[in-house]
Design brief:
This protein is of the alpha+beta class. Helix content is 35%, strand content 27%. The protein is built from seven helices and 15 strands. An eight-stranded mixed β-sheet has the order 4-3-5-6-7-8-9-10, with helices on both faces. A five-stranded mixed β-sheet has the order 12-11-13-15-14, with helices on both faces. A two-stranded antiparallel ribbon has the order 1-2. It is globular, with a radius of gyration of 18 Å. The protein starts with 9 loop residues before the first helix and ends in a 5-residue tail after the last helix. 48% of the residues are buried.
């Protein structure tokens, strides 16, 4: 275990990534055991189209307990309410169930997402596609691994041959018109667009080269922290809609293979989505 104020090192990050992977697997086993058992009375609306149940909260409790043991001084930013500053500049950023609506409807596209950030910069990223037992892991200065094997973002194809992923706005519709314009242009200029309902999985699949790019707005840090690092360490590029670096807290993200990133940003700008 690292000392409380130990300097960042490759070995520390690898150790913390292993702890995050272990926590994700424990939470994933709980999610699988509970899928299909949640009753309508167990589900609450946090906000418009933003659902939560005891499953999300218990999965978060399991994850926090594991991570607190691995790195006691770190704080937490977690979707279901765990918010602790900690005593250092390191914070775990946790989504215990990314794709809650999918989970509740019996769809397999849901994930556990765990990142560790140092001074607002992700240094560990884990996304676990629970139903497929598909584990994506990376840490500072390391490759991105999928089930222990390194993966890379897609290379070569331009936008015309690209397969993209996105997420539809589900509660903030202020820029829905611009989003629709971008979606229409991408429909006309790419091989296709997919929407699975889990930003963490979309980013993991972009890191692995299945998608050439992903864009979405209205997201929170726990939706993108781990997946964004997966893409970066797989050789992809991650920005906000203006091409800047405020993708973690800026509520908008564009993650793409280098061959399509500039063209995707151009479409986003023409649609009026760039700040």
């Amino acid at each position: 275990m690292a000392d409380e104020f130990a300097p960042l090192s490759f070995d520390h990050c690898r150790e913390w990534a292993a702890a995050a992977e272990s926590a994700a697997r424990e939470a994933g086993a709980f999610l699988l055991a509970e899928q299909g058992k949640v009753r309508p009375a167990d589900v609450q609306d946090k906000s418009l189209n933003n659902l939560v149940s005891y499953v999300d909260r218990e999965a978060e409790r399991l994850i926090v307990a594991c991570l607190r043991e691995a790195l006691p001084e770190a704080g937490f930013i977690a979707e279901e309410g765990t918010a602790e500053t900690g005593t250092a500049d390191r914070q775990w950023i946790v989504d215990p169930l990314d794709g809650t609506t999918n989970f509740l409807h019996g769809l397999p596209a849901f994930a556990v997402s765990i990142a560790l950030a140092e001074k607002g910069r992700p240094i560990v990223g884990v996304v676990y596609h629970v139903s497929m037992d598909d584990m994506f892991v990376t840490w500072a200065d390391a490759p991105t691994f999928r089930n222990g094997l390194p993966v890379r973002a897609a290379e070569g194809p331009g936008l015309a041959d690209a397969l993209l992923a996105t997420g539809f706005p589900y509660y903030d519709f202020e820029k829905a018109e611009g989003y629709s314009a971008a979606l229409l242009e991408f429909m006309r200029s790419t091989r296709g667009i997919r929407r699975f309902g889990s930003a963490a999985l979309d980013l993991a699949w972009t890191a692995a080269g299945s998608f050439n790019g992903f864009f979405e707005m209205g997201l929170s840090p726990w939706d993108v922290a781990a997946g964004g690092l997966l893409v970066q360490n797989a050789g992809g590029r991650v920005t906000d809609f203006s091409g800047g670096e405020n993708w973690l807290f800026g509520r908008q993200i564009l993650a793409a293979a280098p061959s399509v990133q500039a063209d995707m940003l151009a479409v986003i700008r023409r649609a009026g989505l760039a700040d």
